[in-house]
TrEMBL record, chain A:
Keywords: Cell membrane, Membrane, Sugar transport, Transmembrane, Transmembrane helix, Transport. It is a multi-pass membrane protein. PANTHER family: MALTOSE TRANSPORT SYSTEM PERMEASE-RELATED, MALTOSE_MALTODEXTRIN TRANSPORT SYSTEM PERMEASE PROTEIN MALG. GO terms for molecular function: ABC-type maltose transporter activity. The chain crosses the membrane at residues 25-50, 62-82, 89-109, 153-174, 186-211, 217-240, 261-283, 322-341. Part of the ABC transporter complex MalEFGK involved in maltose/maltodextrin import. Probably responsible for the translocation of the substrate across the membrane. This is Maltose/maltodextrin transport system permease protein MalG. It is found in: Cell membrane. Belongs to the binding-protein-dependent transport system permease family. MalFG subfamily. Residues 149-341 form the ABC transmembrane type-1 domain. It holds the Pfam family BPD_transp_1.
UniProtKB/TrEMBL annotation, chain B:
The lineage of its organism: Bacteria, Pseudomonadati, Pseudomonadota, Alphaproteobacteria, Hyphomicrobiales. This is Sugar ABC transporter ATP-binding protein. It holds the Pfam family TOBE_2. Residues 4-234 form the ABC transporter domain. One of its GO terms (molecular function) is ATP binding.
Length: 355, 354
């Protein structure tokens, strides 16, 4: 190379820097553009739940809170993108957080209240809410919300326990033992999961009726388990496949029985898989709507989703603050669960889903 | 300690006879190596001994008792897997304790034994770590400790050194050998590395495609290989194998002709590189390549019978590439095999031409 080479390299480096920066800018713009539509509905739900008042279709609070939150989010991202050091990053984030909280307290704070969560302590809240606008008659008879909450926990919890147990054992067997029809079974596991549930709802209604499990929580649990099992087995098989045979064989020669080896050596290796399917199955049961709507009738059997549905049906026109509050209440457990299990869920993609 | 016997043992996977018919006796306290190329059924034999695989036929005996159907956990066999197979979710201490868990050993005694065996293989500082935090050599030691803690009657080592780097392999070789000398436990080492087998074992079982080719001391296998396969498999740099036709006491290989005693027909001559030397008489050739190997120098010499490897002691080359030389050897160091049956012809020799 001749002398000007160094000068050229500076120009090349400058161009590469520019390209890198503009790529990052485009990426952030894209992330903001796609995440706003996802975040906004949740944000509105929460804001309405804590600010709306009976009979008032007020949207000013919404816009004001948006006016605080959207610039705050953008400022956070800009800080993260532009900060040159850890120190700068933390100072920037703290500054944005302080300004945003102050603005929020001033602009939105005075409008916040907990009145919409009346359903938590007043089972007959529908009548109370209606009476505020003078329309008392014809309210739906709501069960205690904690009863619905317990039903949902029961359905999701029992379903999770059954799915995790059965899927682990079945997947282990599928992973470790060869038997006639094994690959056909694996294929059918996936096909089963491909069925749209609505196509089966009528036959299942009839079956539950015949075996006398219609309008029982147990019936719904069984149906949910049947629908969730194939995919859970499939996922778990991937996890078991990743556990080396050697460890198990080693446990056997170390004096363990097959069952002891499974429990003390194999299961701990698939712990993340079990956590992942447990969380997904629980949340699936928690959000379940179609089956409970079809198979559960008595209001003592209502789950949170049915409760939510009837609240929406009954008081929506009057007070959507209460509807939103029920929504927030319904949302919180799955949110907590997701956040607690996030670390393990991320590993699903690492643990590898292998056929 | 146990005496191990294979009597017409067969192992089939589906329609494939991985082990067609295995007969073998391993004496109490012996250190035996099972040597053969990858996929020849070494691990399969080992797993049958451990009770992980059920033999498809024949009898497997420990101290004269048939153990074919005895479960792995009742055999008291210690095994070190190629991958070490440590339990990743347990500390090193719990890994070593694991075999004692099922023997209902009292906690104090179990811990004492763990400590003793950890000292034996020098991992006592690692007891609180997880296997994932250990180097390959340390994992290897822990695996050994776990296999030894139950005081097994039989110790099985499946390619224990293949995942270690060269210098570690050298020191582990010595260590495993001295462990055996110390404990006297019957040990079966599986390896595809002939150096490992010859340096560590009292006796070597050389396998090929599920069959035993030869059983003997390292010297037997090296100096008197019973077949072309064993001759070619053992020794590094490998033996020179030269195929030719013998008639009237002379072998003809390519252009070269030289005397042979005690054999005729289609033959393969085997000459170890270190048994060849440069001399005033012998096969004329030209040095094509020189490979210094530290204490020895390997020459590749083009001769009338093809390229041969000659190994010479010393660290500096006494010859240069392209030099014309003559290669000779002592007749008693030559091996003669039947090309057709691949078997050694006992007592047959060849001689370098004058
Ligand atoms: N569980 C099994 N199922 C089918 N074939 C097997 C199984 N285990 C080993 N084999 C086959 O048996 C042969 C010997 O394997 P192995 O004993 O592992 O060889 P190595 O001598 O390398 O240890 C190989 O061809 C292998 O493919
Ligand atoms: Mg092997």
């Amino acid at each position: 190379m001749v002398a000007p080479a160094t000068a050229d390299w500076d120009a090349l480096a400058a161009r590469a820097r520019l390209v890198r920066r503009s790529k990052a800018a485009v990426l952030y713009a894209f992330l903001i553009a796609v995440s706003l539509p996802i975040i906004l509905p949740y944000f509105w739900l929460v804001t309405i739940a804590f600010s709306a008042r009976t009979g008032v279709a007020e949207t000013a609070v919404l816009w004001r809170s948006m006016g605080v939150v959207v610039p705050a989010v953008i400022a956070f991202w800009l800080t993260a993108a532009l900060a040159q050091s850890r120190r700068q990053l933390w100072t920037g984030i703290t500054a944005v957080a302080v300004i945003a909280s102050l603005a929020f307290a001033l602009l939105v704070g005075p409008d916040l209240h907990l009145g919409n969560f009346i359903f938590l302590w007043e089972p007959d809240f529908a009548s109370v809410v209606r009476s505020r606008v003078g329309e008392v008659r014809g309210a739906v008879q709501f069960p205690n919300v904690w009863h619905a909450f317990a039903n949902s926990i029961l359905i999701a919890g029992a379903q999770t326990a059954i799915v995790v147990t059965v899927a682990s054992l079945a997947a282990y067997y599928l992973s470790r033992f060869h038997f006639p029809g094994r690959s056909a079974m694996l294929r059918s596991l996936l096909v089963l999961h491909a069925f749209p549930v609505l196509t089966l709802i009528v036959p299942m209604f009839l079956m539950l009726y015949w075996i006398g499990l219609l309008d029982t929580l147990f019936g719904v649990i069984l149906v949910l388990v049947a629908f969730e099992l194939p995919f859970a087995i499939f996922i778990m098989k991937g996890f078991f496949d990743a556990v080396p045979w050697d460890i198990e064989m080693s446990a056997l020669t170390d004096g363990a029985s097959r069952r002891q080896a499974f429990v003390s050596v194999v299961l701990p290796q698939v712990r993340n898989g079990i956590l992942a399917i447990a969380v997904f199955t629980f949340i699936r049961g928690w959000e379940e709507y179609i089956f409970v709507f079809t198979f559960l009738i008595r209001n003592s059997n209502w789950t949170m989703s049915l409760y939510m549905y009837w609240v929406r049906d009954d008081v929506m026109g009057v007070d959507y603050g209460v509807v939103s509050a029920v929504g927030v209440f319904y949302l919180v457990p799955s949110l907590i669960l997701y956040m607690a299990a996030q670390r393990y869920l991320m590993q699903m993609s690492i643990g590898g889903v292998k056929g | 300690m146990a005496k191990i016997e294979f009597r017409h043992v067969v192992k089939r996977f589906g329609a494939v006879d991985v082990i067609p018919d295995m007969n073998l006796v391993i004496d109490d306290g012996e250190f035996v190596a099972l040597l053969g190329p990858s996929g020849c059924g070494k691990s399969t034999s080992l797993f049958m001994l451990a009770g992980i695989y059920l033999p498809s036929g024949g009898e497997l005996l420990f101290d004269g008792r048939v153990v074919n159907e005895v479960e792995a956990r009742d055999r008291n066999v210690g095994i070190v897997f190629q991958s070490y197979a440590l339990y990743p979710h347990m500390s090193v201490r719990d890994n070593i304790l694991f075999p004692l868990r099922f023997k209902k050993t009292p906690r104090d005694e179990a811990l004492a034994r763990v400590k003793a065996v950890a000292e034996l293989v020098r991992v006592e500082e690692l007891l609180d770590r997880r296997p994932g935090e250990l180097s390959g050599g340390q994992q290897q030691r822990v695996a050994l400790a776990r296999a030894l803690v139950k005081e097994p009657e039989l110790l099985l080592l499946d390619e224990p050194l293949s995942n270690l780097d060269a210098s570690l392999r050298l020191s582990m070789r010595t260590e495993i050998k001295s462990l055996h000398a110390q404990l006297g436990v019957t040990t079966l080492l599986v390896t595809h590395d002939q150096i490992e087998a010859t340096t560590m074992a009292d006796r070597i079982i050389c396998m090929r495609a599920g069959r035993i080719e030869q059983v003997g001391t390292p010297d037997d296998l090296y100096l008197r290989p019973s077949s072309l396969f064993v001759a070619g498999f053992i020794g590094s740099p490998p033996i020179n194998l030269i195929a030719g036709d013998a008639e009237g006491g002379m072998v003809a290989v390519n252009g070269a002709r030289f005397p042979v005693e005690g054999a005729s027909g289609r033959l393969t001559v085997g000459l170890r590189p270190e048994h060849l030397r440069f001399a005033d008489t012998g096969f004329p050739g030209r040095i094509a390549q020189i490979e210094p190997m530290g204490r020895e120098i390997l020459y590749v010499v083009e001769t009338g019978m093809g390229a041969v490897r000659v190994l010479e002691q010393g660290s500096s080359a006494g010859h240069s590439t392209g030099e014309e030389v003559k290669v000779s050897f002592l007749p008693e160091n030559s091996l003669v095999f039947e090309t057709e049956r691949q078997k050694l012809i006992a007592g047959a020799h060849v001689r370098a031409p004058d």
